[in-house]
Write a structure and sequence with these properties.
Helices cover 52% and strands 14% of the residues. The chain has 13 helices and 11 strands. Strand 10 and strand 11 form a beta hairpin. 12% of the residues are buried.
Length: 429
């Protein structure tokens, strides 16, 4: 007989046993009902716990992170398929599988003490000049950070590094701790900066004329060699300064170089403006032809100089050089010269035609032609805006107005010297 044939409601006796024929105590019946109900609730709770345990491995991965599953300490999935991107996944419940998420967002790290002079609470709110004056003495290597340049000078610098987790598998295997990752990045970037600055002169470093990629590349090599899974995105030079003892002199040199560069840029802009006003877009090509002609002439290369002059003549005639129009003052003067030349040619041609027309008549009647020409000349003179006055015989009176400026000056002199004014009136009487 199977154990399942025993009914707790019958007091735990087998069916057909003699005990079933006996009357059942009500207390025993109530106890049997309670046990049966308890076993049912227990089965439901166990089933619910089993379902909850199975689905406890449900997890989601955000947009700025990745996840990896570990089954009994080993990564789940083939190589290249172990990293889980954004989405929802189901893993076996713990301790069978474990899910570890890795933040892949870019992280920023400031290197503001490694290569900078020591700053304290007293320096809060001070300007750089004030901090320099408070550190006029020599550097203290035990407190002040610095960088050695390629020309054996010392500079101070502050940097900012941007890094991120590029390969989560070696990162979790060999690093796993964000604080340890920051320390590794700090050391690797510091090595890259020291190596890069050691190959540059101090002047280039102070002018920030350095390659940030060189320091970042060295730091990446160090991190890759340690299989950290970290990578460097950017290395930025935030601030650079010379030692306090020579900072003022360096600033003076930097200011002078900046002023020099500004003046050069201004001169180039003024040159471009003048050339543009002179010949427009073709000014550079036109100037090149002129310079080439002068160099050829000075070198005694007459054939080359003649070729350059012909090219200039062709450009001036067409007002175009290498397909670029000549404008500005050059075009204006060339157009004015062409207009003047056309007018002079037309006037000469008209005079020639008049001469050829009058020559046969002059040869036949010279006095008549001369008299007629004089008459035409007088008509031209006395016509137009010329005013003609005819004087009648007899006395001629002219009324002339005095110069108001002279009269005003004499009145001022009389007011300043009354005696001279009285003498002037007596002479007038």
């Amino acid at each position: 007989m199977n154990a399942t044939d025993i009914d707790p409601a019958d007091g735990g006796h087998e069916p057909g046993s003699p005990e079933l024929s006996l009357p059942i105590d009500p207390a025993q019946r109530a106890l049997a009902e309670a046990l049966r109900l308890s076993f049912g609730i227990l089965r439901f709770v166990l089933l619910a716990l089993l379902v909850a345990y199975c689905f406890s491995g449900l997890f989601s991965v955000g947009s700025n992170e990745v996840a990896l599953r570990l089954r009994f300490g080993n990564y789940v999935g083939a190589a290249g398929e172990q990293v889980l991107e954004r989405g929802t996944y189901l893993a076996a419940p713990f301790p069978i599988e474990q899910v570890i998420t890795v933040d892949t967002r870019p992280q920023s790290l400031a290197l503001d003490r490694e290569f900078w002079y020591e700053t304290g609470a007293d320096d809060q709110g001070r300007t750089r000049a004030e901090m320099r004056r408070s550190r006029s003495g020599p550097l203290d290597p035990t407190r002040d950070g610095s960088l050695l340049t390629g020309d054996l000078n010392i500079v101070h610098a502050r940097w900012t590094v941007t890094y991120r987790v590029a390969d989560p598998v070696p990162y979790l295997t060999n690093v796993g701790d964000p604080l340890l990752a920051r320390q590794l990045v700090r050391c690797a970037v510091a090595q890259g900066i020291v190596h890069t600055i050691a190959g540059l002169p101090a002047a280039d470093v102070l002018k920030a004329s350095i390659s940030r990629d060189a320091a970042a590349a060295i730091a990446r090599e160090r991190l890759d060699a340690m299989a950290t899974g970290l990578t460097i995105d950017h290395v930025t030079l935030d601030e650079v300064s010379a030692p306090a003892s020579v900072a003022d002199s360096v600033d003076a040199v930097t200011t002078a170089e900046t002023d020099r560069s500004r003046r050069i840029v201004g001169a180039e802009q003024e040159r471009a403006k003048i050339l543009g006003e002179a010949a427009g877009e073709a000014s550079s090509r036109l100037l090149g032809l002129i310079d080439a002609n002068e160099r050829a002439s000075e070198a005694g290369l007459e054939s080359e100089a003649a070729a350059y002059r012909r090219a200039l003549d062709e450009a001036f005639d067409a007002l175009r050089i290498d397909g670029i129009p000549i404008g500005g003052e050059v075009a204006k003067r060339l157009n004015a010269a062409k207009t003047h030349r056309s007018r002079v040619v037309e006037e000469i041609q008209a005079d020639r035609e008049t001469f050829e027309r009058l020559l046969p008549e002059y040869e036949r009647h010279p006095r008549l032609v001369t008299s007629r020409l004089w008459e035409e000349c007088r008509e031209k003179i006395f016509t137009g805006d010329v005013e003609t006055f005819y004087a009648a015989p007899g006395r001629l009176e002219l009324q002339l107005n005095r110069d108001p400026e002279v009269q005003k000056r004499r009145q001022q002199e009389q007011m300043q010297d009354p005696g001279a004014a009285r003498q002037e009136r007596e002479r007038a009487l």
